[in-house]
């Protein structure tokens, strides 16, 4: 490129988003595996998000629940596990080792050290590190025998999991914590257990646990570039700030991984705003043949994919669409930008409201209404309330 950086403007970024995030009609996927591979990670903190995010991108949305459950619990081609920023995601199973080595190892060491410190201090030394080692070995053996189990079921096999300790003694947030709740989270971050089938419907947040399937142990220096390469192919161009936020890594790790994959710098704003794409992703991307509409759920990986979001989400829309912790609620998209929000009413109807109306006439509104009707149809008798509720979602759902 003779030292001249290619410029990728907002219009091309929206075109990339439409195609690579499988949001325009012709780009929709046939299976949940294709969706997960395209997005790298599906947010799993709210169980319903996984299904809604997949359904928005499938050719046949009516098969969403059955197909996601097949992939997660029968074929095991998708796995729900802790990943970036201590968050639960659903990943393609072949990425489990990469995610664990690139982000999980450092998080796991901190999580275990914190548990041991809190447990020993909060029990006046009654519960020790040696005691915990014995209890967790017993719990994992019980889990292996059962195949899948809730924490309640595991405590029947290993009653010591019910032991409690005081967290934050003397502080305003002082509380009693149970060994089981903290230990299972630590084991999850360590990649030793994963979430299994939920209790009840697919919207349930009460999960069984299962022993994690075996995967190779990769060096972090090998895994981090690999994860970054996957993500840039899905979401590039991205700035260092985007990459640091999404991965939860130190900026030095981000820069080392960018160098390792030979990432190419581009500009997002004339004269500045450096971002990166992979070395084989410099060619211009044409927009979809037809404009498109989408209704995406709270915490959708597209809406949450970048830290710097002004190119697809106008700042004035954020107060209505985000909660106080920065979690996005259900969003309405038109042709690569967020233009409003949606909610499901108690009677099952999906309703929506535009917050940005420039360029949105009758034809565009009809396309959005078609997507709302599509979503209403496949939800059927299911009722979905986002785990993290936002001002507009609350207002619309009343």
TrEMBL record:
* Alphabetized Pfam families for the sequence: AlkZ-like (PF06224)
**What protein name is recorded for this chain?**
Winged helix DNA-binding domain-containing protein
Provide the alphabetized UniProt keywords: DNA-binding
Molecular function via GO: DNA binding
Q: Which PANTHER family match?
A: LMO0824 PROTEIN, WINGED HELIX DNA-BINDING DOMAIN-CONTAINING PROTEIN
Keyword DNA-binding attached: yes
- Which InterPro entries does its entry note? AlkZ-like
